[in-house]
Amino acid sequence: MIVIVLLIVAITLSLTVFFGTKAITVTGDEIYNYEQITTASTINIGDNLFLTKKKAVASAIETALPYVEKVELKCHLSGTMEIKITAAKVALAIFNGETYTLLNSNCKVLENNSMVINDDVILLNTGEIISANLGEQIVFSNEADKDIIAKFMAALSEYEFTGVTAIDISKPLNVSMTYKGTAILELGVVESVPQKMPFIKKTMENLFKERPSFEGTVNFTIDKKAYVRDKREEK
Q1: What is the mean pLDDT of the segment spanning 135-139?
Q2: What is the pLDDT of residues 148-170, one digit of tens each?
Q3: Interatomic CA distance for residues 114 and 231, integer angstroms
Q4: Nearest alpha carbon to residue 218 among 202, 203, 196, 235
Q5: What distances in angstroms separate CA 32 from CA 57, 59, 66, 87, 113, one per listed residue?
Q6: What distances in angstroms separate CA 134 from CA 110, 120, 150, 163, one per listed residue?
């Protein structure tokens, strides 16, 4: 009984005294100030370091502060709780008629009502949007839209394909991309896009090397084939 009592006392002390949070530090990307991050974390001085629900804290920060991409929590035996911040990057934008909704590559809403977008941001044309709440995943009427976007972004990243200025998934059976603002690439069904991406990249790089001012359409709906139509021919 004495041993059990001592164990209970030891556990109680470890949870309330020995491993209490004495300080909170914030490291990583500086996108929000210290007060904003610590407030969003809901961690208080005195909270037990090892009882902190790290996933819940990370989720709370990422939701409350949209431009936070990732949060890592590290407990130090000195009594310090370290919050490491990785900044979110705007990858996609949806035009709403007058302003833009800005998203990261995972469709998390970073900003609403933005007046401008940077040159490296891809303009996205999708189906109907149900909600676009800051810090949360955007919700489309067609639940498959997010999966389609994910496949596009993963393929572009895997093959380091740059120069894409727009993606149109409003017609699921014939999705398309715009390359360097002047070439529309017809791709067919989205499931075929990842496997076609190396061929598409090579074709477009070669085309623009020969014709830097090309304007028109390139049809990639048939595997390993590219049919080029100049804008003047389309008229």
Answers
A1: 95
A2: 999 899 999 999 999 999 999 99
A3: 32
A4: 203
A5: 16, 16, 10, 9, 20
A6: 6, 21, 19, 28
User: Which three-class secondary structure string do you get for 41-97?
Assistant: HCCCCCCEHHHCCHHHHHHHHHHHCCCEEEEEEEEECCCEEEEEEEECCCCEEEECC
* Residue 137 contacts residue 109 (beta carbons within 8 Å): yes
Distance CA 73, CA 158 (A): 29
Q: Are 91 and 72 in contact (CB under 8 A)?
A: no
